[in-house]
Amino acid sequence: MLNRYPLWKNLLIILVLAISTLLALPNLYGEDPSVQISATRTTKVDDKLVSNIEALLAKKEIPYKRIEKVDDQVLVRFNDTETQLKAKDLIASDLGNGYMTALNLAPDMPEWLESFGFRPMYLGLDLRGGVHFLLEIDMKTLITQLTESYADEIKTSLGDQKIAYKSVTVHDSSIDVIFNSDAEAANAGNAVTINKQNLMQLNWSVDGNKLIAKLSDAELTERKRNVVAQNIVTLRNRVNELGVAEPIIQQQGADRIVVQLPGVQDTTQAKEILGTTATLEFHIVYENSNLEAAQVANGSKNAPLGTKLYHWRDTGAPILLKRQVMLTGESIVNATAQIDPENRRPLVSITLDSQGADKFSVVTKANVGKPMATVFIEHKVETIMQNGQEVKRNYIVEEVANAATIQQQLFKNFVITGLDSLEEANKLAITLRSGALAAPIQIIEERTIGPSAGKDNIDKGMTAGFYGLAAVMVFMLIRYSLFGMVANIALVANLILIIACLSLLQATLTLPGIAGIVLSLGMSVDANVLINERIREVLRKGVSPQNAINDGFGKAFATIVDANLTSLFAAVVLFLIGSGAIKGFAVTLSIGIITSMFTAVLMNRAIVNVIWGGRRLKSLPVGGKELLPIFSGETTYDFMKYAKAWLAVCIFVIVAAIGSVGFFGFKYGLDFTGGTEVEAVYKNSIETDDVRDALLKVGLENAEVQHFGSSRDVLITLPIIEGMNESSISTAVLGALEIIDKDVTIKRVDFIGSKVGDELVMSGILASVIAILMILAYIWIRFEWKLATSTILSTVHDAAFVLAVFAILGHYGQLQFDLTSLAAVLAVIGYSVNDTVVVLDRIRENFRAARSGTPKEIIDQSINQTLSRTIMTSVTTLLAVLALYLFGGEAIHSFSFIMLIGIIVGTYSSIFIASASALILGIKREDLLPPKKEKAEEIQEESMTYF
After folding, report:
1. What is the pLDDT of residues 287-325, one digit of tens each?
2. What b/e readout covers 125-135, taking b as 16+ CB neighbours within 10 angstroms?
3. Number of helices and strands in the chain (H, E)
4. Of these four, 477, 690, 790, 889, which has the most CB atoms within 10 Å of its CB?
5. Integer Cα distance of 538 and 326 in angstroms
6. What pTM was estimated for this model as a whole?
7. Backbone phi and psi for residue 742, each to the nearest 5 degrees, phi listed first
């Protein structure tokens, strides 16, 4: 027989590779650090602006690659990030508020490629620098505000209907209206909702003389969904005001929003702009405020009906304002910070929308000659410690910024004065322009990565990837000769397909994502190893080369599918439950597993068919004579002679591992404990004791300090500190580090709230359980229950062993258990099952084919037949992971270390534990026989052509 693909299949493979190459090509050209200048409503981008920027940079002697005018933007390209940052500050200062100036990474690809609309994949913050915030919406405050709004509407309705009542009180999402009698309460239930469509949405009930109104679950769900969407829009507007190119703002879960700002290093400004819920209200000043405000403030008198007590923001003096709101910040369409030319004081110029202008003109006309106050309202969050737990307390600050007499009717434009500084005026203008948040938000997670750290991570990731790929390719070439060269071509094609998919999806590549690519390449070789080892095996039996090619690809196909699916399950669970960098790892690993099926099975077969499949051959260049008998596939090791011993060792390891975890526990990383982690680098070597002493001098106790990669780099981990937020901690740490040596740079700052840490622990446990259950459910369906149970035992053994390593080395060393570690554990589980499935698949095959032999003999035969494949796959994956360990940097050091251990343990368990367990459980030929089929079906199955 001859092995040939039809023409359409070859053309399809070529087309996929050609398109993938084009999609991946933009990543080859890299990106330039750039400054992006965009016009606002009052300015425009023209040649004059370009000339001004060129002159400005030339005057300050700041070098640049080129300046481009693209659509309505100007793009200035630079050679490095340091020059980019200097130029951004200079240009922003020179252009002022008339233009938005943002940091960007502009693809440096030729015009012909750009014309296709192709773009490179995004780089994560750990590769380009910037800040990451996880914001939580305060839904409790939202419900309170909504309920109080309904309470006010109920009071108004009762007043309109002239219905007397004793009190109206708010309790969470319900409102209690107390009447003098039961009859009044019953009658008021219907009367209060007359011509009030909003109040009809409430769930009404009567309890004696109490009328109860409760918010419906449907309305609460709808309001929560709307507030998340509205807050995302508002945050996007505020980010635009910050001048950040390519920000990521997206919902995470039911009440959280992720904000990533590439290139931003000033976290204080970013947090103030993103988190402020400031807005304005305009009220008429009560006519007797000067006389009565002090009496109300000291409690000697109640506030007059229809008034409310406020305080001046500059002096704290009391002032009484009428409750009626004349105008709110929602009607503001534009706000600009300016300096009053007469007194040089800051002010904000306001422009209203048409509806707001109409309303404002009516109320100001009716109140000419009366003083009107501007009330500055801001929701704030205070962090306090209660019973050792971090608690967030929300409170509202309402201050009178200014009060001026209405001299005439006001319309669309007016100004606000009484502000302390131009900076405050700018922040207020940004907040008013972007709109108020629908509900308060609080930052529960913050990560800052410096641009130098991002560049280091890229260099280390690329170096690890290069060495890992090179090591695997050299090994394959030595082992399988020309067939190894074909496998290497498929491996490179797989890398191109992964990058193409990431570019097409506009996915974000992170450092753990690079680790996922390297790991997937190492694991993708497994398919080529399976195929080549099968071909070598059948050639040794005297089968013709063409039949060997067909049998090698055909019989390996089902095993490849089973093995890859089990690894894919773990990756998918990581993606669904993980967050941030873990998602990046899961995405690249998942894509790599899927694309490897195409390259290893379809493309590999197509190349083999073209070169060797169309002619009669006497031999195949699939490797030379075996130098070591263990790789021959003809070994007769009696593995199952000590089956009971292997099983006893397995049980002992599991029990000992559980005991180790229970006794030592884990040294949890920042992801799970919460706190602040700072990575800093000195110009010269530094002692950790000196750093620890310096931290104590500034009042930072219980700090863990360790070297991180070199004697110049230090990693500082601090617990949550009462009364200090992430900004004050970062400032204090930098001050302490400068005590030792002024020449120090902060590379990275991570802050995790305790609430996030607790949730990550739970989600991590859930992810592990779901991944294991999905894998085992698949194995249970594909294999007989005794083999499935054996897989469970083998997987539990590997997972327990790895967790024990974390516990022991965490206790006696510095190995922390964090989200990256969790990813490593799940990756080990996926790899372990992958390895075990290959052995189980051969056991099932041999049991079905054998007409004689005991179960022990058949299992031993199966292990010996797959021994070379098991070792070869382990070696190739070890080479890829070893490159990560040696060159990938400290950020993925623990991940690669655990993977190295997991590969070795997984190889051991797939050979000894799973097989021994199946034998002791009494596996026999009848257990693995397929259901009987009709003769016609059997003939059809035998005639199937495999890929």
Report:
1. 999 889 999 999 888 888 889 999 987 788 999 999 888
2. bbbbbbbbbbb
3. 31, 27
4. 790
5. 88
6. 0.70
7. -65, -25
